[in-house]
Write a structure and sequence with these properties.
Blueprint lengths: L2 E4 L2 E8 L5 E6 L11 H9 L2 E6 L18 H9 L10 H14 L5 E6 L1 H12 L4 E7 L13 H5 L1
Parallel strand pairs: 3-4, 3-5, 5-6
Antiparallel strand pairs: 1-2, 2-4
Helix pairs in contact: 3-4
Length: 160
């Protein structure tokens, strides 16, 4: 089982495709494992010449867990952020974006196409902001910036 020590955290990852392929990193959402990216999808990317890297985010799947910290109180986190204060958390999305950058370094990948789903999209966006030199393209699926001042989805979009 491939693991990498990144930012002081053990992260589980898998690679599919030729090592010489165009690197693409798939980042999963909240609490989901890398297996959320369906194997047929990953295989199609590899067949099209991509070196596909999937990882379990910290605290998910086979990566290091933070059980001792307990589950975050999302309402308290949202309230603290609304008040302009930093909530007490064992890690942040910034840390998770840095994990991805460190994994790329560990794998010898200078730049990659980055795809994130849901919270993974937020991590991908932060990776592009914090490490723009590491991102070739960014695809953010079913995600947001987290800015509470952005308009909500329309009822039609929510139905879809």
């Amino acid at each position: 089982m491939p693991r990498a020590q990144v930012n002081g955290v053990n992260v589980y990852y898998e690679e599919t495709g030729a090592p010489s392929g165009k690197p693409i990193v798939l980042i999963s959402g909240l609490g989901t494992q890398l297996t959320r990216w369906a194997e047929p999808f990953v295989q199609r990317l590899a067949q099209r010449g991509y070196r596909v890297v999937r990882m379990d985010n910290r605290d998910a799947g086979l990566s290091e867990s933070f059980d001792a910290a307990g589950a975050p109180d999302l309402k308290a986190v949202a309230s603290a952020r609304s008040a302009g204060t930093q909530p007490a958390l064992p890690y942040t999305l910034d840390d998770m974006a840095d994990d991805v950058a460190a994994l790329l370094t560990h794998l010898g990948i200078e730049r990659a196409h980055v795809v994130g789903s849901s919270m993974g999209g937020m991590i991908a966006q932060l990776l592009a902001i914090r490490h723009p030199d590491r991102v070739l393209t960014l695809t953010s699926i079913m995600s947001t910036t987290g800015n509470p001042e952005l308009p909500r989805a329309t009822p039609q979009a929510q139905e879809a």
